[in-house]
Specification:
The chain is of the alpha+beta class and about 110 residues long. It is about 15% helix and about 20% strand. The chain is built from 1 helix and 6 strands, in the order ββββββα. A two-stranded antiparallel ribbon has the order 1-2. Strands 3-4 form a two-stranded antiparallel ribbon. The chain has a two-stranded antiparallel ribbon with strand order 5-6. Strand 1 and strand 2 form a beta hairpin. The longest helix has 15 residues.
Length: about 110
């Protein structure tokens, strides 16, 4: 293994940066974690930020545990995520339209 040792302007108290200090050729740059922006000397939540999904297009990302499940298991009546997010039929939930479509189909078939 190879280890580098040394110091730069970020080595001393993170050079005053609230989160991440990057050493660049002309000094340092303070940056924030994903979803945050520098505002003065602080990192604040970026308005309207949506975190990128960790899942592929063929998967659904569970809301709380961030697991990826195959989209075939979304809105199938089984809580595959363990947090109910793959079966959420509430306002803005993934299954709201599916539930409405099933009700409409049932109504059409009965009529």
């Amino acid at each position: 293994m190879y280890f580098e040792t040394g110091s730069n302007a970020c080595s001393n108290n993170n050079n005053g940066c609230p989160e991440l200090c990057l050493a660049v050729p002309n000094g340092t740059v303070c940056v924030c974690r994903d979803g945050h922006v520098m505002q003065g000397n602080n990192c604040v939540v970026q308005p309207n930020y949506t975190a990128p999904s960790r899942c592929t297009e063929r998967n659904f990302q569970c809301r709380h545990n961030l697991r990826c499940i195959d989209i075939r298991y979304v809105c199938d009546g089984d809580d595959d995520c363990g947090d109910g997010s793959d079966e959420d039929a509430g306002v803005g939930g993934r299954c709201g339209k599916v539930a409405m479509n099933k009700i409409c189909l049932l109504h059409v078939q009965v009529s």
